[in-house]
Amino acid sequence: MAQGCLKCLKYTMCVANFFCFICGVVVLGFGAYMMLNFKMPALTPTLPTFNVANMLLISGIIITCVSFLGFLGALKENRCLLLTFFLLLFLLMLVELSAACLLLVYEGEIALLVQNDLKRGLNEAKARPGNSTALQSDWDLIQRRFECCGVNNATDWGDRVPPSCCPENCANMTLSYARKGCLVKLKAWFEENFLTTGISVIVLCIIEVLAMCFAMTLFCHISRSGLGYKL
User: Fold this and answer.
1) Do residues 151 and 161 touch, judged by C-beta distance below 8 A?
2) Which segment of 81-85, 132-136, 151-155 scores lowest on mean pLDDT?
3) End-to-end CA distance of the chain
4) pLDDT tens, 8-61?
5) Among 231, 224, 230, 205, which residue's Cα sits nearest to residue 6?
6) Radius of gyration of the chain from Cα atoms?
7) pTM to 2 decimal places
8) Closest CA to 146 of 115, 116, 122, 167
9) Could you give the angle at which helices 52-76 and 2-37 cross, rounded to 10 degrees?
10) Which among 24, 25, 12, 29 has a CA at the least distance from the CA of 71?
């Protein structure tokens, strides 16, 4: 009975990790496709290296590597691979929980850093000659998408307020500048999606805990059986 349960556990781990591996490959491929075919908005000097495409690439690499270790460790009943799989999942969960705690504790400081970074990006856009720069077009894209203007309001642009701060078919642009800044709109957008993000993180942590329990159970069974580090 025990052997049958452990075999079921082994093949459950294999199937689950194989599915995660396929998902990781899909995420990795989608990230590479976005990087090659889509231009990511870059409002700040920091954002060009911290955009959706890069995050998908990093996530895809992590998912594929960790799930491959879990799949191979369970299939070959290799203690070394299973222990590595367990430790990597444990470290990932610690990083996720630490990041969530830091976001909650230092919310004000992080918001101030983002605001300062947005202002630096806007100043760079104003300093470039003309309004056709990549940074300017990124600001135009966000300002049209969120119907905002500048970081706090239109005065951030000084006397060079771009047309994207004006609604469509606006006859007199000066009448439309009394909009909310993009910082407030972006913050509201993140708050609207906070619940979904929180639920996703909780579900991910539960999956990681279950995977660690399965890996450690199989690891202990292999140790008791004296199978060692067989390949």
Assistant:
1) no
2) 132-136
3) 25
4) 888 889 999 999 999 999 989 988 887 777 665 555 555 555 566 778 888 899
5) 224
6) 24
7) 0.75
8) 167
9) 160
10) 12
